[in-house]
Amino acid sequence: MADRSGAEDSNHWQTPQWLYDELDAEFHFDFDPCPNYATFDGLAVEWGQSNFVNPPYDRVNKPKFIKKAFDEWKKGKTVVMLIPSATGTAQFHDVILPNTEIRFVRGRIAFVEGGKPRDSKATSKGKHDSMIVIFRAER
What we know:
Blueprint: E1 13-14, H1 17-27, E2 50-53, H2 61-74, E3 78-84, H3 90-99, E4 101-104, E5 112-113, E6 116-117, E7 130-135
Parallel strand pairs: 2-3
Antiparallel strand pairs: 1-5, 3-7, 4-7, 5-6
Helix pairs in contact: 2-3
């Protein structure tokens, strides 16, 4: 549940509960390295076996969380990321595309701010199309 440092209107956008619940029912998450208002650095701690990651979307931290997700996957963990659909980046082509399952989200997500969902008008939804990126542990 990402801290959107640098966003002009808020620093704390959460994943809508319906989307988290849908993914949790499938993956049974035991850790979130990016909880809203975190008191720890998700890049510096060991992750769980099944992780939900909605990282900060800024250009500094998002690539770091994608790299950390890849590293945790290499340790045998499952990592499910909610990130913008940035398909033209080197990181997408070199890390995400060859190693993950990708689910593109139809429409833009209305993230949650301060515990209240943003309204349904298109202008209040996220600024990016989104994708679910799944680094799935071997079974």
